[in-house]
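Field log, afternoon session.

UNIT: design team B
ACTIVITY: writing a sequence onto a fixed backbone
BACKBONE:
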């Protein structure tokens, strides 16, 4: 319990004024009377340049390009990655996952969860700041705003003035760009669940099916609303990660933090001011320019301490470092650091919590790999005839009827050989060699007959052995247990 970060209670004035330089109410309260309570105010995010911003843009662009390109990749003449829900199968290049492979999906989610826990314990909410789709799309929409409506101060003035032709065309162009991006996002997302090439053709020729078309429009609306209008509301009020993240933090977690010992007290000063003059005025390195607030996508003041609204995007770090450069001060007034470093200590990288997450992550990753390695591209299900337990055929043999369902979980056509084991001189009635296309299920009705004198029990254990030789010479086989009933 001693490793928990103490809660810092902010004065009401700090909460009230922390983002006053960035938030603007479009309609003043005076116009509506004293009882007017404005809804969410608008945040005008100021552009920032710096190493973290460059890295974040590259990172976001890379994964955005990956998201857009993956559905178009072809493998063996078909879409390489396709989550075909109606057919209940997921194609991942040469691997096809079926409902029977639910453990693989469970392992994937568990590995992802512990990877998130590990990264959060080590570096805070870097997922939110650098990889979260919400953050990526919000910054993409803000980029459109900057290109069409101008910088943050110009966007403020544009929203405050009355509608004219210039404002009309800029607003129209901005929302059109947002809708185009949202539509492409919706089409790409649905393209993971239905062949994307045909989806584009059907959608733009108005021949798309109801559910595919509805899903595209639904995700278009969600993207437009989340990234264009809700923005920080998603991060602050709707995302559960912001609420439980503090359970993974400790005093050695790297988070975006302000060095209050170095920065306080705040205040403007001349660049030529000497250290003696600054000490006389009790001024620290913070010049109170508020740039760290103006570039924050959630509108917080990082100087108020660790806050759950902070997404660790590092925009305030770049903004502050730029100011420190201009003032001739050392960088790092705002930086990725730990509470121990802020208090003059050193950060412990190797610690029990982090090691625990790493060990569990390695174990679950190992189990996921083992599950994949032991997975056979063949599934056999045996269904006995429920109408007749057994019958005596014209040759005086006792006959049992079965239906074999052979699932080819590979992507290529395979020919399977079927034999019976566990019975004395069984007679196989039906095809013993069947060809099944990749990703298909083949139902094979068969009968097995045995001389009654060789049966010593009413129920005799037996099995069906199904095998195939793949193109690379690998033999894939499976033995499925069953029973032969007599009397």
């Amino acid at each position: 319990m001693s490793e928990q970060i103490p809660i810092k209670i902010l004065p009401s004035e700090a909460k009230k004024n922390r983002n006053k330089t960035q938030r603007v109410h479009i309609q003043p309260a005076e116009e509506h009377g004293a009882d007017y309570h404005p809804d969410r105010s608008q945040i005008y995010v100021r552009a920032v340049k710096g190493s973290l911003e460059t890295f974040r843009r590259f990172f976001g662009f890379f994964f955005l390009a990956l998201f857009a390109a993956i559905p178009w990749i072809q493998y063996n003449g078909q879409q390489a990655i396709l989550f075909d829900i109606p057919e209940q199968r997921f194609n991942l290049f040469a691997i096809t996952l079926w409902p029977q492979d639910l453990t693989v999906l469970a392992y994937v989610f568990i590995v992802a969860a512990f990877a998130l826990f590990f990264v959060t314990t080590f570096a805070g909410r870097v997922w939110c700041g650098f990889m979260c789709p919400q953050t990526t799309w919000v910054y993409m929409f803000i980029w459109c705003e900057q290109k069409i409506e101008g910088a943050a101060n110009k966007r403020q003035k544009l929203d405050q003035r009355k509608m004219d032709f210039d404002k009309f065309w800029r607003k129209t162009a901005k929302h059109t760009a947002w809708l185009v991006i949202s539509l492409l996002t919706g089409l790409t997302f649905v393209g993971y669940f239905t062949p994307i090439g045909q989806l584009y053709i059907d959608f733009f020729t108005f021949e798309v099916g109801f559910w595919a078309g509805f899903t595209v429009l639904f995700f278009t609306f969600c993207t437009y609303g989340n990234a264009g209008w809700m923005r920080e509301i998603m991060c602050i009020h709707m995302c559960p990660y912001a609420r439980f993240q503090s359970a993974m933090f400790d005093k050695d977690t790297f988070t975006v933090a302000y060095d209050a010992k170095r920065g306080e007290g705040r205040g403007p000063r001349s660049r030529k001011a000497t250290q003696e003059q600054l000490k006389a005025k009790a001024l620290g390195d913070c010049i109170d320019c508020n740039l760290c607030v103006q570039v924050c996508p959630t509108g917080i003041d990082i100087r108020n301490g660790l806050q759950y609204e902070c997404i660790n995007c590092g925009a305030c770090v770049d903004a502050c470092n730029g100011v420190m450069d201009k003032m001739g001060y050392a960088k790092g007034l705002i930086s990725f650091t730990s509470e121990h470093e802020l208090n003059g200590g050193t950060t412990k990288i190797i610690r029990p919590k982090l090691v625990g997450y790493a060990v569990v992550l390695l174990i679950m990753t190992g189990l996921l790999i083992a599950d994949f390695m032991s997975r056979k591209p063949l599934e056999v299900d045996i269904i006995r005839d429920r109408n007749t337990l057994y019958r005596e055929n014209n040759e005086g043999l006792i006959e049992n009827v079965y239906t074999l369902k052979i699932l080819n979980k590979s992507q290529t056509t395979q020919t399977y050989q079927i034999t019976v084991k566990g019975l004395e001189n069984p007679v196989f009635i039906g095809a013993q060699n069947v060809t099944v296309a990749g990703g298909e299920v083949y139902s094979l009705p068969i009968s097995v007959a045995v001389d009654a004198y060789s049966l010593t029990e009413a129920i005799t254990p037996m099995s069906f052995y199904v095998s195939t030789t793949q193109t690379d010479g690998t033999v894939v086989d499976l033995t499925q247990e069953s029973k032969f009933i007599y009397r």
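LOG NOTE: Residues 110 and 123 are 20 Å apart (CA to CA).
NEXT ACTIVITY: expression trials, pending approval
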